[in-house]
Structure formats: C-alpha cells, structure tokens
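During the second year of the project, the team shifted from modelling isolated chains to modelling whole assemblies. The rationale, set out in the original proposal, was that interfaces cannot be judged from single-chain predictions alone. As a representative example for this report, we include one of the complexes processed in the last quarter. Its constituent sequences, exactly as entered into the pipeline, are reproduced here:
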Amino acid sequence: MTRQWQNRLTAAILPVGILLTWQGIAMLNATPLFPSPVRVAGDAIRYAPEILSELRHTLFRATLGLALAMATMIPFGIFLGRFRVIGAVMEPVIDMIATLPPPAMIPIVMLFAGTGDWAKIVVIAYAAGVPLLINAVEATRTVHPMLNRVGRSLRMGRLDAMLHIDLPASLPMIATGLRLAISASLLVSVTSEMLLATNGIGVFLQKRQELFQISAGLAGIAAISVMGVLINNLFLRLERRLLFWHYRPEDPS
Amino acid sequence: MIINLILKLRLIIGLLILMTVWQAVALAELVNPKYFPRIDAIVVAFRDMIAEDNLLEAAQLTFSRAFMGLIGASALGIGLAILSEVLPWFRLGFRVIANVLLPIPPAALVPMAIFMLGLGPELYAFIILMVAVWPPFLNGVAALHGTNDVQLRTARMLGCTDWQTLWQVRLPAAMPEIFAGIRYAATICLIAAIVCEMLAGRDGLGFMLFKKAFGQRIPDVFALMFLCALMGAVLNGATNFARHWVTGWNLKMQEVAR
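Output from the structure prediction step:
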C-alpha cells in the first residue's frame, strides 16, 4: 500500500513540475498567445457543453467508420490468409495501399462523396481498415496447421473452417489490429472534420483558431486526449474479458 | 513450379492486376469517367505538373520534412527511452505524459501551433515530433527493460560498468524492437507532414492536393495521391535499409533460425 503510494507520488513529480513551469512562464509573459494551464482549465469548464456535443459528432462518425472497416476487412483478411496464392499476389498491393496516408485520400473521396458525413466515414473506414486487414491476413496465415487438419477430419467446408477455426484463432491478433484501428479512426475523424468542416470537435478547434481563443482550443485538445485515454482503457478491459482464454497462460493470477 | 514463379513475380503481378483492373474500370466507364480517369490520363497529368507546377520541388519539400522529422523523432524517442531507463522518476512521470499526448491527432495541434510557432520549419518539426516520437519511445522502453538476462550477466561477468552495459549490450539488443517502432513512425511522419501542409496552406504536396481537388483537376489529384503512396514506400525502404545497417546481425540470426 505504502509502496503503491510512493510510486504514485514519484509518477506525479514530472507532470506536476511541467504544469508548474508552464504556469510560471505564462504568468511571467502575460500574452493571450501563451495561456496558462489555469486558464485552459477554466475554458474547459466554460466550453464543456459545446465540446461535449461536438465530440458526439466526432465519435459517431468514428464508430460508423470503424464498424464499416471491421465488417469488410476482417472477412477479407481471413479470405486472403486462407487462399495463400491470392494473398501473396495481393500482398504488395496491400503494402502499397497501406503506405498511402489517409489524409491524401480525403480530396479524392471528397470528389466522389462530397463533404457530408459519408465522405468522412469512408476515409475513416479506409484508415481503420489497413491495420485490421494486415493483422487478419497475418493471423490467418499463421494459424496452427493442426487446427485445420482437425477441421478437415470433421468434414468442415471452407466457409465453416473460416468461421469456426480461422476467425476465433485469429482474434487475439485482430484485437491488436483493432487497437490501432480505433486510434486511427479517432485520429482521422478529427482530421477529416478540420479539412471538410461541418461539425465535430475538429470544427470547434478551427473556430477557436479563427477567434484567437487559444486557451479554449487547448481545452478542446485536452478533451480529445481524455476521450482517447478513456476509450483505450475501455478497450483493454474488454479485450482482457473477452479473450481471457488467450491471456490466461501468461497471467496466472 | 508455377506457384513458385507466381510468388517470385508477385510484386509485378500485383501491380499489373491493379493497373489492369483500374484501366478496365475506367475504360468500361463503370464509374463516372470524370471522377475516375484512365491511367494514361494520370501519367499525362503527372508529366504536366512536373513542367507547370514545380511538382518535384513540392515533393522534395514534403519528403525532406517527413524524413527530417523521422530522424528527429527516432533520436528523441531513443533518448527519452534511455532517460526513462536510467531515471525511475522520469519513467513513471513520463508514462503519464505519454498516455495523455498519445491520442492527440496531428491535425488538432496545427491551428494552435501556428499561433505559437508560425508557418516555418519549427511548425513542421513540432507537429511531426509530437506525433511520431511515441512508437520508437514505447518500443525502446519495453525493449530496454526486457534485456535478456544471460546477456546482462555476461556483461557483469566481463566487468562492464552500468554505462558500458547500457551502451554496448542493452541498447544494441533493443535496436530490432526500436526499429519496428521507427517503421511505424515513418508512416506517421509522412501523414503528419501532409496534414500539416493541408492545414497550413502554403506549400508542399498536401497543399497541392487540396488546391487541385478544389479546382476539380481530378487526374492531377490521382497523380498526387500515387506520388504520396510512392513516397511512403520510399520512406519505408529507407527505414528498412537503416535497419539492415544497424541490426543486420539480428536479421541474419532470424534467417539462420528459419
């Protein structure tokens, strides 16, 4: 107990030190271009309703894009992992697509889908799809051969084998990809809002820039960061609970 | 036999398939041809942009931003990882800071950073470092912390001091894992550079992409997009080259093990 507290206190030294230095510098040269943490916190409270309602739009699109990516890319990845020749031929193509930065896609998607919700959701799905696809292919390819032999002796068809052998066996690795996909979807969701503005936290940030309200903008950035931390923790917990069979051998407690 | 041949030529075959499907879709006009140009139209657009819009200059600018950012982020990430390993209070505290800064997208930082840093190289350096430092840092911390016990004891037996152990045993042993992080950071650097150019709106490929898109110059946009993908591949290749150079021993070991 005391050791835990000692650790927590040690952990607090650096962040608190940085915040205090920041406050000190901000108080020394009092310009609105360099707001103090206290002012940022005040603005975070003042703008909380607006920030929360904008975050809702951002999260909504990120979730839809992620769902679209999961529904298409996980089955496709398992397919490519199972039919090795097709997978091997597609691999360089996938690599090439994977190096294409999602923001470079935004102008193209804008041509097809305009600047509405769907344009953003497509870009989000693309960004989230890449890690899902790569991990699903790799996981299916490395499934233990014995599992497939068992499947064959149970007279499973290809579709059955994909559904009942490849998918569950690949889940731990897909979960790793999913974690990357979640952060990618949030990231691209904010980015696409800033470029194709309608609503969402990205628009909030840009409005603050136009109005020279830097401390409010920093409060918006802090809100994104808090949201990211919360979602990440939630996902880690869910992963531990749902994939307990994978983690049990490592973690005897 | 045939399968082996297919596997050997897969890069070419994959590209050919992609281009054939692309050209077929464009020729059959499955999609509105205005929005889906043929490959030859894209090539022409590419050539014209080199002549008229100083495309190569813009590409060089974007690439150097991403590349310098990658070098800086890798060096800083490794430095912070070593610092974390040496100073416990720094490790515990910086983990909190990393968790907080990790989810912030580069685009969100740009508007506020423009106020504080202007539109010069400082802006790009700041944004890219802010988002690309984490993969090398996190991998570095994990790898430095988990050095093989046998190697540590061997170093102690040979009479190495703590510093010597860190520089000559633990850091080289951590390099393969750090390079996995650097490879991931390479993609992030390019993304950050392009997003930053889109929002700063002054120069570089990101700015050109947006200008062309709003001008409805569709073949140009596709050409730029392919150029971005190519640039990602080049950056990836450069990272792989550096990895061979620094951790070639490890790669050879893996091949032998296979």
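Chain A touches chain B through 62 residues (CB under 8 Å). The two ends of chain A are 19 Å apart (CA to CA).
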